Amino acid sequence: MKFLDGFGEQAYALLRIIAGLLFMAHGVQKFFNFPADFPYPLNPMLYAAGAIELIAGALIAIGLFTRPAAFIASGMSAVGYWVAHGLQSPFPIANGGETIALYCFIFLFIATRGAGIWSVEGMKK
Asked: What distance, in Å, lies between the first and last C-alpha atoms of the chain?
């Protein structure tokens, strides 16, 4: 579409920011029960997942240490998928894991691409 030509960097920045904020919201819910109570008691694995969601999500959203944060978030999402969803059914839509599977690949993409514009890292240039 001709009218969207030239907006790739802005679209990527929005993807990075929104994905980071939404991922961070999972950590906020686990630790602060906001905006809704987290439905499970926190065990060590959920504490680790919540810390990664909170910290990596924030770093990805602001574009600081973006590649390592996104790589860690991608790995955590892959593990989370298989621990919580993947063994229930081979189909993400049937096992409830489509969101975490999508996070895994979005963060893998971000890890390969870096922060881009509208980021703390981009301000250094």
From this structure: 30
DSSP per-residue letters across 40-58: S---HHHHHHHHHHHHHHH
Please give the C-alpha separations between residue 16 and each of 42, 57, 84, in angstroms, as whole numbers.
Answer: 28, 9, 25
The span from the CA of 109 to the CA of 77, in Å, is: 13
pLDDT (tens digit per residue) in 85-105: 999 998 999 999 999 999 999
Q: Is the peptide bond before 39 cis (omega within 30 degrees of 0)?
A: no
* Rg, C-alpha atoms of the chain: 15
CB within 8 Å of 67: residues ≥ 6 apart: 110, 111, 112, 114, 115
User: What does each C-alpha distance from 6 to 1, 3, 57, 117 come to in angstroms?
Assistant: 11, 8, 27, 13
Question: In the prediction, which pLDDT does 89 show?
Answer: 94
pTM of the entire structure?
Answer: 0.94
